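> @MW can you paste both from yesterday?
MW: sure, first one:
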Amino acid sequence: MTVPGPGDGDLLDFVSKLAALAAETEEIESAIQRAADLAQEHFDLVAASVWLVDPARPKYLELRALSTRTPMASPPAWSIPAARGVVGRALRQERPQLLVDVHSDSDYLAQFPETIAEVVIPLRHRDGALGAVVFDADRPEALSSEKVALLEAVASQLAGLARFAAIERRNQEMTFELEQSNLRLRERNESLSEFATTDALTGLPNRRQFDQTLETEWRRATRGEAPIAIILGDIDYFKRLNDTAGHQRGDVVLAEVAEVLRGAFTRAGDLAARYGGEEFVVVLPDTPLETAAELAEQARARIEARAIEHPASQLGPVVTLSMGVASVVPGLGGDPALLLAEADAALYRAKARGRNRVELAGGELQPGSKLPGFKTQVARPET
């Protein structure tokens, strides 16, 4: 191939194409490859390769573009040490290295068998070295001083593109790091939020979460003129269990009771929480007293059927729960604390009337109740 000399139309076309690459910053990697292709084709080189500093390994250069006269299945190398060979010398001396005969230079590291002559041009920016561009030829005249000057113009364009590529990569890394930091922050916040609203022993929502939920559901019930119910439950003879079997056994019982309650109240909006000590509380939106009573009785029966061992109970060998139920359709200016107080009073009556039973606010449940599945008991004396 005859290389056009200065002033030829092909040379002007080459310079024009080279200048156009400066504007192609939206696709920097492809612009770098096209610059290598342009130089290789115009000067009929064995190869034109662009090596840039590897951000993950600053002492190495990674191959970012390769254009060869003969197609290759894979490049001779994907990365090279930045301090070795003619490339390393060019970076150290900060000036181009022209090898008219590569085999007479002890620093030359063979990449392509056809290479006779080579020029290595360092790519630099005021921040430091960016990498190097290597032009391999199979005859010395392909790298005359005039042509090397043109190749330095290619290298200058490549330095600009390499700088853009470094900035783009750093921006991508910073974006990724920011996304990861935000993700970790969200996870920590979620953990803190869960920690602040979850009872560590039972895994149920804690008193704080219950209070917030009750306030929210109370306002919703007020706006919709809908009923809202509260169930308060207390493990029977729990203090005696702790005194007899120890607090560790008491913790196990609390966790088991919580598991039963979690499975008993699964409707959308229902919230079963640990109220404190051996007490549990349930918020039931859109629930009238009769429905709340049925749900409470089903939960009480589930706990008794679970047959959790209780060696100190005077009701039998298993853990039981006393429960108080209250429900109201809130009015403007109403106070959810009053509903809670009604449920607490019903719980007190359940304790006073023998335990292991459900009592309703506003009056006791008489034997023979028509509520489906509701357990009634003759009152036992307090023990």
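MW: second:
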Amino acid sequence: MSDGVRDMSDERFFVHYRISQEWIDVERIAQALCLDQTVELSADLVPEELIAQQIVGRIEHIAPCPESQAYEAVISFATKLVKHDICQLLNVIFGMCSLNPLVRVVHLEFPSSLSGTLPGARFGLREIRHLVECYNRPLVCGVLKPLGLSSQELARLAAQFAAGGLDMIKDDQALADQPWCRFEERVARCAEAVNRVNRETGRRCLYFVNVTGPCEMLSKRCRFAKDAGASGLLMCPGLMGFDALRQMAHDARIALPVMSHPAFLGSFIHSPAQGIAPSVLFGELPRALGADISVYPLFGGPYGIDRMEWIKTTEACTRSWGSFRPICPTVAGRLQVARISEIRELGGDDCVYIVGGELQRRKDDIVGMCQRLLRSVRRDC
């Protein structure tokens, strides 16, 4: 065995797994997690005692879950297994056990020694508020859509959103580099439109560009967006990888806020017995890796998240959690104006309300639609 393994420190990170099984099998499954997430051998085949002690995961605690017929097992892993490697971190957390229909990741705990690997948000909730100069109400974000509009049409829509007083505007995740709407033209036109309205009104509306696309184009797209005057980046880590999000969020040449989008991640969250809890997938992971805003669906809408999971995810974005800055939680997925009072009572003032098609119901008065939405938000504050 190499000296690197023999000298391994005992500093560890902790993964909370919910195991949907009778007690007679829970400890066996937890022990299998310790092995399968590291050496992927049965215990009798682990070759040396030091590997068993320092490489294999360790069961720290098992207890029944009060709200369900399941058990929570807390398993720790040595930090040296994953330092400076997000892919390996995700593999240890949920690699092989993603194939197990009885195991769900429900919480993560990271020591400060992983701060180089998990840098957290560059901006975070407070700085986003500072950028838009709004401190006492939920922020409101419009969405540039639908797919099929030209760059000129999207820029016109962006200008209307900004003139209506919205705090931020984001590309729809479907906007990429289509033949009728090329990436560079779209970004340049929309950024110019938003910045022109900002100059005219004295307000500060942010524009988040969807840079999701081919890996070899990612850094170039992000730098182009910044040079064109965009205010932030929209990324889909389910499509590009969580490490791509981390890399762009902390590239000093870019230094723009990042909004994380849940595209391609939905199937992880819908089974209560398996997958990754929304509070981890849309809360803890993007927060640890550098997102400043995390988009996830509102309960009671078409995308299947329940009320308690939405509350837990919102809390995971904002609660005190080690050295990680709080990030902006969101209200997304067909938000209806009639629900604003209900949502504010549950989510507080720090959510970003993301509104898409509702703002285009009266295409001849989009500015007025934005202004009426903002009045509704202010009235409930």
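> thanks! DSSP finds 14 helices and 13 strands in the chain.
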